Automatic annotation (TrEMBL):
Residues 4-56 form the Resolvase/invertase-type recombinase catalytic domain. GO terms for biological process: DNA integration. InterPro entries: Recombinase_CS, Resolv_N, Resolvase-like_N_sf. Residues 36-56 are annotated as: Disordered. Keywords: DNA integration, DNA recombination, DNA-binding. It comes from mine drainage metagenome. This is Site-specific recombinase. GO terms for molecular function: DNA binding; DNA strand exchange activity.
């Protein structure tokens, strides 16, 4: 069985478009954090790490 295709995006401002970073990709799940590059609190990244399995 093939793994899931999972994407992760971080944008730092409301004006930035997370979707544009994923254009052309076929993904099963996407995790997006909206935070400054200096902010190391990234709950969606932590969620992705917990969600992903071997082979994803």
């Amino acid at each position: 069985m093939a793994g899931q295709r999972i994407g992760y995006v971080r944008v730092s401002t409301v004006e930035q478009n997370a979707g544009r970073q994923l254009d052309g990709l076929t993904l099963d799940f996407t995790f997006t954090d909206r935070a400054s590059g200096r902010d190391t609190d990234r709950p969606e990244l932590q969620g992705l790490i917990k969600f992903a399995r071997d082979g994803d």
